[in-house]
């Protein structure tokens, strides 16, 4: 049971339910291949059936950690920090991103967009999910739109979502990992016919890195 003092720190973003943090190579999307420090925050109610980090869903399993400690760890390793989840926007991210940027670290986020946007960001990767759609306000802020493709109907969803983002937003289609052999040929064909889209692959899984 979280005490009142801890809850107040969580509400201010001065503590976060940290699941894991690690320095690795970005595996997906626009920044594939770049080194980054990943901060994975627990808590998510979006409920993707194919989620590969379902252990992140229950925030109670991940102890509240002082955000300053997380920031100090990141500063030792990287110049770019990716905040992910879970669904990181369930928590206030103003404090952590302000402190990271004051230490000359670039701040990136991957989010479903289902919660209000907080934080100061150099890069917002919006990955909408049908189970809990993004709030309208995040679409114009997204630098990257990444749609997971697990069946042919997801292409229609991708176009619906792309119609809501800015013209400058980078568009990516990514095969759901367990369906990659089935869906990748369809994605290749689709991108060749619709070259405004690019293909994202989970290269970290091919490389066997976090």
UniProtKB/TrEMBL annotation:
One term of GO molecular function: S-adenosyl-L-methionine binding
Pfam families registered for this protein in UniProt: Radical_SAM
EC number: 4.3.99.3
Oligomer status and interactors: Homodimer.
PROSITE patterns recorded: RADICAL_SAM
Enzyme class: lyase
Cited HAMAP family: QueE
Stated name of the protein: 7-carboxy-7-deazaguanine synthase
Note accompanying the cofactor annotation: Binds 1 S-adenosyl-L-methionine per subunit.
GO biological process: tRNA queuosine(34) biosynthetic process
Keywords associated with the record: 4Fe-4S, Iron, Iron-sulfur, Lyase, Magnesium, Metal-binding, Queuosine biosynthesis, S-adenosyl-L-methionine
Binding sites annotated in the UniProt record for substrate: 25-27, 40, 84, 210
Family, similarity comment: Belongs to the radical SAM superfamily. 7-carboxy-7-deazaguanine synthase family.
Residue positions binding [4Fe-4S] cluster: 44, 48, 51
Function, as annotated: Catalyzes the complex heterocyclic radical-mediated conversion of 6-carboxy-5,6,7,8-tetrahydropterin (CPH4) to 7-carboxy-7-deazaguanine (CDG), a step common to the biosynthetic pathways of all 7-deazapurine-containing compounds.
Residue stretches making up the Radical SAM core domain: 31-210
